[in-house]
Amino acid sequence: MSRKPIIAGNWKMNKTVSEAQAFVEAVKNNIPSKELVDTVIAAPALLLAPMNYLRQGTDLQLSAENAYFENAGAFTGETSPAAIADLGIEYIVIGHSERREYFHETDEDINKKAKAIIANGVTPIVCCGETLETYEAGKTAEWVEGQITAALKDLTPEQVSNLVIAYEPIWAIGTGKSADANTADETCGVVRATVEKLYGKNVSDAVRIQYGGSVKPENVAEYMSKENVDGALVGGAALEAESFLALLDFVK
Ligand SMILES: O=C[C@H](O)COP(=O)(O)O
C-alpha cells in the first residue's frame, strides 16, 4: 500500500509574525506538488492567520501546534479548534512530548483533543514517544502501544485511517541523537501494529506515521526509505527556509 509522504516542520515557540511571513514568502513557490507530498509548517497560533493569507494558492499546508478540546467558552488563553478550522488550517499537532511534560497533558486530554479536532474537519497529528529511561529499559513498544491506544479511544476506523501519528523518542528531540532509521522503522511498525490490533489491516495500511527527532536534510531520505515511516516531524531543521526546502529533496 502506498501512502503519501508528509513532511511537517514544527517551529515550536520560535519566530515572530514578520519572521514567519518572510519564511512563507521564501518557500511558498518552491514546495513540491501536494499530489506527491504533503508539506506542512506547524506554527504558534498567533502566526497562522498571516501565514495562511500568504500561502493561498500554493502547496504549503499549515498546522497549529496545539488546540483545546472545547470549541468556545471561558478558557482564558486557549485556542479553539473551531477557530483554527475556520481559518482553513489543515492539521493540529497534539500530544507533543513538550506539551505532555511542561503543560501536564494527559492521554485523556489528547483523546478529547483528537475528537474535537476531527469534529471540526481538521486532521490531528498525534504524537507519541518514550523517554530515555523507558528506551533503556527496553519498554518502548509497550509504552507507545499504551499511548496510541489511549489517544485513539472511541475513534471510528474511518477517523483513524485519516489521521497522522508521529513517533518521536524524547531522547532524540533537539539532542542531535536521532534514533537510527531501523529503530525508527521498528517503532513506527509497533504503532502500525497497534492500529491494526485496534482497527484492522485496512486502517493500519492507510494511517500515516511520521518519525521525529533530529531529522535533517542529510538523513531524511534514509528514514523515508523505510516501510513504516511515511514522513517526518522536524523541529530545528525546519526553522530556516533553505533547510526546510532541502528536507523535501527526497521526492525529486
Ligand atoms: O516536533 C518536532 C520534534 O520535537 C523534533 O525536533 P528536532 O527535529 O529539533 O529534534
Query: What does the radius of gyration come to?
Result: 17 Å
CATH superfamily: Aldolase class I
The CATH class label is: Alpha Beta
Q: Give the SSE string.
A: EHEHEHEHHEHHHEHHEHEH
> Ligands in the structure?
glyceraldehyde-3-phosphate
DSSP strand count: 8
* Tally of distinct domains: 1
Q: How are the strands ordered across the major sheet?
A: 1-2-3-4-5-6-7-8
Major pleated sheet: 8 strands, parallel, barrel
Strand content: 15-25%
Low-pLDDT stretches are: none
Mean pLDDT: 97
Instruction: Give the % helix.
Output: 40-55%
Coarse structural class = alpha/beta
Function: Involved in the gluconeogenesis. Catalyzes stereospecifically the conversion of dihydroxyacetone phosphate (DHAP) to D-glyceraldehyde-3-phosphate (G3P).
Catalytic activity: D-glyceraldehyde 3-phosphate = dihydroxyacetone phosphate
Subunit structure: Homodimer.
GO biological process, one term: gluconeogenesis
Question: Care to describe what's here?
Answer:
It is an enzyme of class 5 (isomerase). The active site is at 96 (electrophile), 168 (proton acceptor). GO terms for molecular function: triose-phosphate isomerase activity. It is found in: Cytoplasm. The protein is α/β, with parallel strands linked by helices and 252 residues long. The chain is built from 12 helices and 8 strands. It has one domain (6-251): Alpha-Beta Barrel (TIM Barrel), CATH 3.20.20. The chain has helices at residues 17-27, 45-55, 81-87, 97-102, 107-119, 132-136, 140-151, 157-162, 181-199, 201-206, 220-224, 241-246; strands at residues 6-10, 38-43, 60-64, 91-94, 123-128, 164-167, 208-212, 231-234. It has an 8-stranded parallel beta barrel with strand order 1-2-3-4-5-6-7-8, surrounded by 4 helices. Helix 1 packs parallel to helix 2 (45-55). The longest helix has 19 residues, at 181-199. 44% of the residues are buried. The protein binds glyceraldehyde-3-phosphate.
